[in-house]
Each structure stands twice: as structure tokens, then as C-alpha cells.
Amino acid sequence: MPVNIAETFELLFDKNNNTAYKALQELQKESEKTDCVYAYMDRLGDMLDSNNSYIRTRGLVLLACNARWDIDNKIDEIIDEYLRHITDVKPITARQCIKMLPVIAREKPELRNDICSALQKADISFYDDSMQPLVYKDIQKALKEIQKL
């Protein structure tokens, strides 16, 4: 059954996180095959400012998934804002951001230096002691992946 992109996109904001997560997965799958989600890039960018960390995370993930279709350089325009989420107040959101950066770096080589620089400068000392090593490992892994590109 074909996915209704407009309806599925609206489900990203559903109060029920399971519903919203399923919508995210659907849109990720679609983004691998076609540019049908690319029409929503501006709204995805707006999601980075949400007070809700789940919505921020969904925006970060889908922006990265659509980097390959980014003919209008929309990611280039918001890359600084995107990179601020490397140190998002919520460590889970930060970790998702960091994990998606190699995807952007692969599709947009002109942003690699900015991405690597932001990863290297990231101050993660404000995270709880239990989260710091995880975020640090994510950063190191992302840097390694980007250097292999």
C-alpha cells in the first residue's frame, strides 16, 4: 500500500510517541528510495527548534536521510543549527544527531570540515557521568566514519 506522505508527516507530531515513531520509520524508508519527503525540508528544519526532544530527534534523522536529495542546499543553510544538537540538552537527541552526521557527510562532502570541526569541539562535560562516555564514543565513531569517506 503506498504511503500518504502528507498524512504520515503529520503523524511525526502525534502525542502518541509509538505512532510518531512508526511515521518516522515509514518516512525514513521512503527517503531511501525517493525524494518524496524532500518537499518537507523546511518543516524538518523547523522541528530542530521544538521544545519536544522527540520532535527534534525526528527532524534531525529525516534531514540526514534526505541529504542525498538536497539539490537546493537546504541542509547547507541550516548546518550550524543542526550541529548545535551534537550537544543537545537531551543526550539521546545528541546521540541520534551524532549518529546521522556521517550520512550527511557522505552525501554533502562540502560540509565534512564543518561537521568534523563541530564534533571535535563539542563540550559534553555537562552530561551526567553515565552518558558522557556514550556520547564521547558516538563522536569518535562518527569522526572515524567520516574520515573513511
Q: State the end-to-end distance.
A: 36 Å
Gyration radius, rounded = 15 Å
The structure class reads: mainly alpha
> Low-confidence spans: pLDDT under 50, at least 5 residues?
none
Q: What do we call the CATH homologous superfamily?
A: Leucine-rich Repeat Variant
Whole-number mean pLDDT: 97
Number of helices: 8
User: Strand share of the residues?
Assistant: under 5%
CATH architecture: Alpha Horseshoe
Tell me which oligomeric state these chains represent.
Answer: single chain
Q: So what's the CATH class?
A: Mainly Alpha
CATH domain fold name: Leucine-rich Repeat Variant
Helix residue percentage:
55-70%
Shape: globular
Let me know the number of strands.
0
Number of domains: 1
Instruction: State the order of secondary-structure elements, H for helix, E for strand.
Output: HHHHHHHH
